[in-house]
Amino acid sequence: MKAMILRGISPVENEPLKMEEIPDPSPGLEQILVRISACGICHTELDEIEGRLPPKLPIVLGHQIVGTVVRSGSGAARFHAGDRVGIAWIHSACGKCPFCKGGNENLCLEFRGTGCHAHGGCAQFTVVSEDFAYLIPERFSDAQATPLLCAGAIGYRDLILSGIKKGQTLGLFGFGASAHIVIQLARYWGCNVFVFTRGETHRNLAKKLGASWAGGPEDDPPGKVHCAIDFTPVGETVPRALRVLEKGGRLVLAVIRKRNPIPPLDYKLLWDEKEIKSVANITRKDAQEFLSLAAEIPIIPEVQEFKLGEANQALILLKQGRIQGAGVLRIQDESG
Ligand SMILES: [Zn+2]
Ligand SMILES: [Zn+2]
């Protein structure tokens, strides 16, 4: 099969992903073989490529995968050939450690990430345990469904962890793939939303999706926010978000890695019982619940499509903040 392979850590501007011909994977015990039709891209790929979250090399990146089941390995009976399934960041968890047993498989001691510890979606085929795949609701196209699997599922987890309640104001810092899904969820739940982001196009999309105010990261909003979610890859956002956070409010940090450290924090910004919480990975429950909710609301993500062979260029645009909505790689038979 054709796959875009990463063989070494490098700035993404060097275009380190190379198209290669590698053997087709074959499904092991309780696994399914999936023919991939689309794979979303996210900041985690940049963290992997540039070494902030080093993957197991060489690796096929990509953890927002939509495709159809080709066949099942021995012991796998959950899906049939032709079923349309999604695969998310959680590739496997042990099921036995205290975290798994306590319902926090996202914190599993043996957590393995798709496209990080196991080959992911920048390829024509992949394999995964049948327990870590999800049926994709019919109302989404393949490309539309991909961002639901990471940007959406983790955004859902961010929103739950933020503790936001109906009628309260939520602040979103950064307005990429995840935030543009979270705003739709928050509006559905009856929350007021302020969006802090650079770039006119992002602010316009925020308003179109229901933000009552959208400004730059340093601008003063019309009031305090009860909860905030920081999607930006930079450390400076943390003190900025705390400055506009209401007393007793919680700031959720949604990224896996920040490109630069959080600047020294004046304790005054954190006082008044404010909290900071990070989010690590997702559980299968997050993915499953969010897919159903997204189909019910419905949340239809805006996507910008690229060919598999354009993965480097798409990731460079993502790094520059120039993708509108979510970036998606289309994987066709010739994969050019
Ligand atoms: Zn575990
Ligand atoms: Zn992701």
Question: How would you portray this structure in words?
Answer:
There is one protein chain. The model has no long low-confidence stretch (mean pLDDT 95). The strands form 4 sheets. Strands 3, 5, 6, 9, 10, 17 and 18 form a 7-stranded mixed sheet that branches. This protein has a 6-stranded parallel sheet with strand order 13-12-11-14-15-16, with helices on both faces. It has a 3-stranded antiparallel sheet with strand order 2-1-4, with no helix packed on it. Helix 3 (142-162) crosses helix 4 (177-188) and helix 3 (142-162) packs across helix 8. The chain is of the alpha/beta class and 336 residues long. The relative contact order is 0.17. The chain is globular and about 55 Å long. The two termini are 12 Å apart. Helix content is 26%, strand content 26%. The structure holds zinc ion (2 copies). One zinc ion binds at residues 93-94, 96-97, 99-100, 105, 108-110.
